[in-house]
Design a protein that fits this description.
The chain has helices spanning 3-28, 34-55, 67-88, 94-101, 104-115, 123-141, 144-148, 155-177, 183-205, 213-232, 238-245, 247-260, 266-282. Helix content is 74%, strand content 0%.
């Protein structure tokens, strides 16, 4: 089996895991609250990634110079963004949460342009951002009447947007400062510091309780998804990973329909299609005018 085939399989596997995540969160909320769900999610996710590192013989130690960056990634991605996302899932449809979460490339491009001197915004980036903004507006407005009245989104959608921006900042930090670290090791520390802080907080506040199996399975699913994603980006190109990740909204929509009885409108479906256009243009490269590839 070629590396490309392996990469496609593992990234699709990661996309499926991330599509399952919001379903499990909503199922867990039928038996417990945000605090318990997020605490056990974090614990079992860390256990899953740590087990993977041990089984593959990886070393947990990192050089001191990486620690401040890893702490930031963990606080911003886990303690803020993940928590915001899990909380918002109690207020929005699965498709809204997944779609807004997949608008992360917009903010990676914009933040990268502002802080990474070697990055520049091309005409394809502008087109990609436009398509993704259209996708977000269509999915969150849901109907033509809402769109016409400029009723775009809810407070829950805004929470997911804040989470998406925070995730994008951690991607930039990892890209600029953590390139030399093993991807699975980054994934472990991504959950470690923020996870420890939240577990301590939850323990003192009301203790750690497991009221349903969904809480535990949720953590394992996220751990597996993170591992598969990082393995995938080592096997295939970033543009291919981005394109394959677009299967997540489709998986999530199907699961949301059959398990949660959530439906999507035609406007939302058009929004999903627009997301493809956004990723396509963001993955394009602009060559010099005299290049035969242009």
């Amino acid at each position: 089996m070629s590396n490309k085939t392996k990469g496609v399989i593992v990234v699709l596997g990661a996309s499926m895991m991330w599509a399952i995540e919001p379903i499990l969160v909503k199922l867990s909320y039928a038996y417990t609250d945000v605090l318990s769900t997020f605490t056990t999610r974090t614990i079992f996710c860390l256990i899953t990634i740590a087990a993977y590192l041990l089984l593959t013989g990886r070393n947990f130690r990192v050089r001191t110079k990486y620690l401040p960056k890893l702490v930031y990634v963990s606080i911003a991605a886990t303690l803020f963004a993940d928590l915001m996302y899990v909380y918002a899932l109690g207020k929005v449809q699965v498709i809204n949460a997944v779609m807004i979460g997949h608008m992360q490339p917009i903010f990676i491009v914009l933040i990268g342009f502002a802080f990474l001197k070697d990055d520049r915004i091309t005409r394809f980036d502008y087109l990609g951002i436009l398509f993704m903004i259209i996708a977000g507006i269509l999915v969150t407005s849901r109907t033509l009447s809402n769109l016409a009245a400029v009723r775009i989104g809810t407070v829950g959608d805004l929470y997911v947007l804040f989470a998406t921006i925070s995730w994008a900042t951690t991607a930039i930090v990892a890209r600029r400062y953590l390139k030399e670290l093993n991807a699975a090791l980054i994934a472990f520390y991504r959950f470690l510091f923020g996870g420890i802080a939240f577990v301590i907080y939850a323990t003192f506040l009301k203790g750690i309780t497991i009221n349903n199996a969904y809480q535990m399975v949720l953590g394992v699913i996220i751990g597996i998804g993170t591992i598969l994603y990082y393995e995938g980006i080592k096997l295939i190109k970033a543009a291919q990973v981005s394109a394959l990740e677009l299967s997540t909204p489709f998986f999530a929509t199907i699961l949301g329909f059959f398990i949660l009885k959530e439906t999507i409108t035609m406007i939302q479906f058009i929004g999903i299609m627009s997301l493809f256009g956004g990723i396509y243009f963001l993955s394009r490269k602009e060559y010099p005018a005299n290049s035969p590839l242009n």
